[in-house]
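The records we work with from here on pair a chain with its fold. A complete example follows; check for yourself that the lines match position by position.
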Amino acid sequence: MKTLQVKLGELQRKAWELKIPIIIVFEGWHASGMGEDINRFILPLDPRGFDFHTMRRPCYKEELKPFLLHFWSRIPVRGRIGIFDRSWYSRAVIELFAKEKNEDALEKTLEELTYFERQLSDDGYLILKFFLHISEKEQKERFKEIKKRGIPLILEEYKDKNGKDLEFIEGYEEYLPVVERILERTDVPYAPWTIIEANDRNFAVLKIMSKVAGAIEKCIEKVTRTPGEQTIKYLDMAKEKLPALDGSVLEKVDLSKSITLEEYRESKKLFQEKIENLQYELLKRKRSTVVVFEGWDAAGKGGNIHRLVEELNPRLYRVVPVGSPNDYEKAHQYLWRFCSATPMAGHMTIFDRSWYGRVLVERVEGFSTEEEWGRAYREINEFEKILYDSGAIILKFWLHIDKETQLERFESRLTDPEKRWKITEDDWRNRNRWDDYEIAVNEMLQKTSTLGAPWIVVESNDKRYSRIKVLKTVAEAIEKELGT
């Protein structure tokens, strides 16, 4: 045991040096000794190098978002270890039983969990999952012993708002088939389950330590191979499900569309009033809205966002400007920084640029590898599906202009002291790579426009036409979803 403890400490330091992120999940029956086993497991580790998370009753804001986003925000940075004393699996079971969901709901949840873990694995995370198993008879004996010692079977923070436990204390037989189904369905090569026979606690700790040490060793060996020796890790299993490219979407856009000033003013008032009224209906029905703006530099994203929120209650919406990720954000999987910005039920979040930077600027400028941006289409579709399945209304706008219009707007900004701040060297550099960006945009539009999260290309040479199309689309989409 001592030798293994020393080895674990050394492996933790090596993983930190190589910036290998590690996730260790502990699940199991209540009274299986999980708390004691985790404590003994972490003793040889440097506490400065791991984060410990235990499942608690969700707060008000967490209850108004898809439960999985709560865990997205807790994944460790590269080089650290995230230890979960119960995890997304326990939350999935609680959701299933508390809300009396059916078999289809469970399957959909398990599908989302596999999305989550596969994306992390593809991004270099080592994921280990342990289930501490004891028999029902053993559990009952341990309950008796716990009660004799005067220890509460469940702490208050482990109960839901109705006072029900979050650790499956009662109903072993009721939970057993669900637990077996989850273990079988989510035991995958990139995030395997290890069943720990927990009747003997010394054996349980030894098995956990051995498994973790062996997995980290293999991961270190893989990372330190020379590029020529490395095996191909990435296999886009969903590639055949993505639509084949069908020419150019942007070439078919009619940029001559325009409206008069009178039409603009009349339509603007009409649709802004509609969206204002719909905002309160969304709150009443607890439906969130995600609006994404992407487009060419100087295409009018800021102006469109301003007109969209002009008459809205600021308590119910948030505008998120997205720039280059900082060092801390880069130390996570790229979708991590967007999870906390997703809206609560009944609220709206408007993204001024978004996660699509992965397949646009990061692709064109070489900030991500072909493997990384290549799998991002699938990852983004999965991320948006989680939002859609939770009830979110998702609208994604690509504001399209031609090169001549962009040049006119660039030059106008240079001569206008109030707008000069809008033009940067990056804008000119991006313009020089217009053709490369056009290829990336066309592929993005075709591979990530789904039934639940469609792309709307907005003809934006005429700013008035662009703004009205966005307002009209938002109003009609919300009306359709709400059936009003």
Q: What stands out?
A: The first strand starts at residue 22 and ends at 28. The first helix runs from residue 2 to 17. Confidence is low (pLDDT under 50) at residues 228-241. The CA atoms of residues 87 and 229 lie 35 Å apart.
